[in-house]
Design brief:
The chain is an alpha+beta fold and 698 residues long. The protein is built from 23 helices and 25 strands. The strands form six sheets. Strands 7, 8, 9, 11 and 12 form a five-stranded antiparallel beta sheet that branches. A five-stranded antiparallel beta sheet has the order 15-16-14-18-22, with no helix packed on it. It has a five-stranded mixed beta sheet with strand order 17-24-23-20-21, with no helix packed on it. The protein starts with a helix and ends with a helix. Residues 1-26 have low confidence and may be disordered.
Length: 698
C-alpha cells in the first residue's frame, strides 16, 4: 500500500487512545459524537471529510461500531474494493479518481470562502460527479451576479438524465458560490442592480434578459434537466429539480451493495479477519436426496459469478488457480452443531479453460449425510486469492424413516441431465448427473427437468409430477414409481407459454389405490432474461463408496445430540459393514464406555492398539476400560499416555488420580488431583481426597 493510502487509512494510534477506547461506554449506548470521538484523527477525517459524500448510511453506521484499528483498516480496504471498477488491475481507479476530485475541490474551489473546498456546494458536486463536460463563467457583468454554468453528460445506468445542468451563483455577489435551485431561488436571483428590479408581473422578461446573455443559462434558470424544461414563455420553473438533485446525491451509493456488512455481522466468527469484509453473493440450492442405503444425503450447489471468483495466474499465464477453503455445518433448531466438515478444493485451469469459464458462473457442489430432523445447513467458501468469502444457507428437513415404507427424495429442478458413471459426486445417481438450477432460476425458453428418487415402492405405485402458478396446475406427468428407482429418474417439462414470476412444483408418491403416501414441494422462478449457468463445476460428495462411512457419520451426529441408543445402532452398523474402520470402532467403544460396558469397549479397542497406539481415543478408551474393570495399574499406564497425547480434562485426571491411588502411587495420584483442581477448583470431593492423600504420605 502506498504511503498516502496508509496515511489516509490512519494506521497510527497512541496508547492513550487505546486506553480511552477500552474505558469507553458500550457502543450501543453511545451517541454518534461519542463514537466519532473514539476514532483516531485520521479515521475521523476519513469518515467525516474524505468519503462523506459517497459512503452509504449503512457503511457509516457500521464503521462507527468497529472497535479496533485493524477492523477499521480492513473495512476501508473493503470499502474501496467494493467500488473498484476493474478488480483485476493493480490500481483502484475509483479510489484514485475520488482523491483526485477531493484534492481539486480543496485546491481550486475554495477561493471565495474560508471553508475547505470539499464543504462548498461546488466542491460537493465536483466530488460526486467529477469534471463537467464544460464550464461557463459569467463574471463582472452588469446584468447578472457572478454565476457558473456546468454541463454534465452522464453515463447510462446511474439514474441520471443523459444531459443536465448545474448552476452556481453568488447571491447579491456576496459570499461563496451556492447551488442554484430554479423553483426556490428563481431566475430573478441571478440578476443584479437595476435588472433585479424588473417588473415582477412579467417573469418572462427576466428569462429574456438571461437569454440575451446566454440561451443555455436562460434554460437552466428554469430547469436543470433539459428533458423536463420550464416554460420560457411564462417564465415558470420546472418542479423536477429536487428529483434530479436527490438522484445526484444518491448516484454514488445506488450501485453499492451493502450485504457485505450483514455478512460481516453474521459470519465474522466463521472467517478470519482477512476475509471479514470481503463477502460476495452467491446463488445456491440444497436438496435432500437418497444415499445407496436409502439414508439421507444433503446435496448442495453454490454458484459464484465470474467477477466474484478470482484466480491467480502463473508467470506465463498458462495456468490459473486458487484454493477454496470449504466449511460445511448443520445445526439443529436449538443451535447445537450436528455436522461439521472442512476441506480444501483446488481449482486449477489451463488458459483455454480459464477463457471458457470466466464468462459464466463457477459452481461448487457437494453432499453430506444427515440424520432425521430439522436443521439449518450452511456452506462457507473462502477464496485464498483476493481473500473473498461467501455463505449459502438453507433449512433442510430429513423425515424419520418409516421402516418398510417407500421413501421419496426431494425433487431436483435441473436445466440439464448428463450421463455419468461416477456415483460419488453431488447430484449424481443411476448413471446420470443432474445440473441443478441455482436459486431455481429458469428462463422462459428453458426446459425444466425434474429428477426424483424413490425406493421401496412395489408394482402399481406411481409418481405424479405437477407444476403450476397460484391455484392453477399448468403441467402434469404421471409415471410408474419404478422409473425413479436405481438412483433416480426424471421427467422434462416445456416451459414455453408460461408467464414470468414464481411457480410451484410438486412431486407426489401414490400407492396402487391412488392414495398420496408422500409429497415433496419446491418453487422456481421464471425470468425473462437468460438464466446464469455454471461453466466450471467443482464436484465432490460424501464418501458413500467406502463401506460404513455413512453410518459412521450418522453415528457421530446422533452423539452430538446425546442420542446414545441411535448413535450405538449406527456405529454398530458401521463396524459390521467395515470392521477395519478404526474411527467407527473407537467411537463405538466410547459409547460403550459411557455406560461402563468396559468389556465391549476393550473388544473394539484392543485390535487397534498395534496400528493406532498413539491415537488419543484408543489410548484413553483403553485406560477408561481398564479403570471400569478396576485394573488400576493398566488404567494408570494408558491414562498417563493419554495425558501426553492431548491436554487432559478433569474427568481423565480424576480417573488417573484414583488409578494411581489404588495402585499405591500416592505421589502421582496427588499430582493428578492437583492438575484437576487447577482446571476446576470447585470440586469438593477431589479437595477432600487430595487432603487425605497428603495426610497419608510420610
Amino acid at each position: 500500500m502506498s504511503a498516502s493510502r496508509a496515511r489516509r487509512a490512519g494506521v497510527r494510534v497512541l496508547a492513550g487512545s487505546i486506553l480511552a477506547a477500552g474505558l469507553a461506554a458500550p457502543l450501543a449506548a453511545q451517541t454518534e459524537e461519542e463514537r466519532l470521538a473514539r476514532l483516531t484523527p485520521e479515521h475521523r477525517a476519513w469518515v467525516e471529510e474524505e468519503v462523506v459524500y459517497i459512503m452509504t448510511d449503512a457503511e457509516r453506521e457500521f464503521f462507527l461500531t468497529l472497535e479496533t484499528l485493524d477492523e477499521r483498516q480492513r473495512f476501508i480496504e473493503a470499502f474501496w474494493r467494493k467500488r473498484d471498477p476493474d478488480p483485476a488491475s493493480p490500481a483502484n481507479e475509483a479510489e484514485e479518481e475520488h482523491y483526485r476530485r477531493l484534492a481539486f475541490a480543496n485546491l481550486s474551489l475554495a477561493d471565495d470562502t474560508t471553508r475547505p473546498g470539499w464543504m462548498t456546494d461546488r466542491g460537493r458536486m465536483f466530488i460526486l460527479l467529477g469534471e463537467p463536460r464544460e464550464r461557463q463563467r459569467f463574471d463582472g457583468l452588469n446584468e447578472i451576479v457572478s454565476t457558473e454554468l456546468w454541463f454534465y453528460q452522464s453515463e447510462a445506468g446511474v439514474g441520471l438524465p443523459s444531459f443536465f445542468y448545474l448552476v452556481f451563483f453568488r447571491p447579491r455577489d456576496i459570499g461563496e458560490y451556492r447551488l442554484y435551485h430554479p423553483a426556490l431561488d428563481g431566475p430573478r436571483s441571478l440578476l443584479r442592480g437595476r435588472y433585479a428590479s424588473l417588473d415582477t408581473t412579467d417573469p418572462a422578461q427576466i428569462v429574456v434578459t438571461l437569454g440575451d446573455i446566454s440561451p443555455e443559462l436562460s434554460r437552466a434558470s428554469l430547469s436543470l434537466d433539459p428533458s423536463d424544461p420550464g416554460d420560457l414563455i411564462s417564465g415558470r420553473a420546472s418542479l423536477g429539480t429536487d428529483i434530479l438533485l436527490d438522484r445526484i446525491w444518491e448516484a454514488p451509493r445506488r450501485r453499492i451493495r451493502t450485504d457485505y456488512l450483514d455478512a460481516a455481522r453474521r459470519y465474522g466468527d466463521r472467517v478470519s479477519a482477512d476475509y471479514s469484509f470481503n463477502f460476495v453473493p452467491n446463488r445456491s440450492v440444497f436438496r435432500v436426496l437418497l444415499a445407496p442405503d436409502a439414508s439421507a444425503l444433503v446435496h448442495y450447489s453454490v454458484e459464484l459469478d465470474p467477477q466474484d471468483m478470482a484466480l491467480q495466474g502463473d508467470e506465463a499465464q498458462a495456468r490459473f488457480y486458487t484454493i477454496m477453503d470449504l466449511s460445511v455445518e448443520a445445526r439443529d433448531r436449538a443451535g447445537r452443531l450436528v455436522h461439521a466438515e472442512d476441506r480444501e478444493l483446488v481449482v486449477d485451469l489451463s488458459a483455454a479453460q480459464m477463457e471458457a469459464a470466466q464468462a459464466s458462473p463457477f459452481a461448487f457442489q457437494g453432499s453430506f449425510p444427515l440424520i432425521p430432523g430439522d436443521f439449518d445447513a450452511s456452506v462457507v467458501l473462502r477464496n485464498r486469492v483476493m481473500r473473498r468469502f461467501t455463505v449459502a444457507e438453507a433449512t433442510v428437513s430429513v423425515p424419520e424413516p418409516d421402516r418398510g415404507a417407500p421413501v421419496m427424495s426431494d425433487p431436483v429442478l435441473a436445466f440439464a441431465v448428463q450421463l455419468q458413471e461416477d456415483q460419488v459426486t453431488a447430484f449424481a445417481g443411476g448413471g446420470r448427473r443432474f445440473r441443478p438450477a441455482a436459486d431455481h432460476l429458469f428462463s422462459l425458453g428453458d426446459p425444466l427437468t425434474a429428477g426424483v428418487q424413490v425406493t421401496g415402492a412395489a408394482s402399481g405405485w406411481t409418481v405424479r409430477l405437477t407444476l403450476g402458478a397460484g391455484e392453477t396446475t399448468l403441467r402434469e406427468r404421471v409415471l410408474p414409481a419404478a422409473d425413479f428407482g436405481n438412483g433416480g429418474g426424471y421427467a422434462e417439462f416445456d416451459l414455453a407459454g408460461l408467464g414470468t414470476g414464481t411457480h410451484w412444483f410438486r412431486a407426489e408418491l401414490h400407492d396402487p389405490q391412488g392414495t398420496v403416501a408422500m409429497v415433496r414441494d419446491s418453487a422456481f422462478q421464471l425470468i425473462p432474461r437468460t438464466a446464469p449457468r455454471a461453466g466450471y463445476v467443482h464436484r465432490s460428495g460424501a464418501d458413500a463408496a467406502t463401506a460404513g462411512m455413512l453410518a459412521w457419520t450418522r453415528g457421530n451426529q446422533f452423539l452430538a445430540l446425546g442420542r446414545l441408543e441411535a448413535a450405538r445402532a449406527e456405529l454398530k452398523r458401521a463396524v459390521a459393514a467395515h470392521p477395519e474402520l478404526a474411527e467407527a470402532r473407537w467411537r463405538l467403544a466410547g459409547v460403550y464406555l459411557r455406560t461402563e460396558d468396559a468389556d465391549r469397549a476393550l473388544e473394539l479397542l484392543t485390535p487397534l492398539e498395534a496400528e493406532h497406539g498413539d491415537q488419543y481415543e484408543v489410548v484413553a478408551g483403553m485406560g477408561f476400560a481398564h479403570y471400569f474393570r478396576q485394573q488400576f495399574e493398566d488404567a494408570a499406564r494408558y491414562l498417563e499416555r493419554a495425558v501426553a497425547l492431548r491436554p487432559p480434562g478433569t474427568v481423565l485426571l480424576n480417573a488417573l488420580g484414583e488409578a494411581h491411588e489404588q495402585s499405591g502411587d500416592l505421589e502421582r495420584a496427588g499430582a493428578a488431583f492437583q492438575r484437576s483442581l487447577a482446571l476446576e477448583p470447585n470440586q469438593p470431593v477431589i479437595v477432600e481426597r487430595l487432603a487425605d492423600l497428603k495426610a497419608r504420605q510420610p
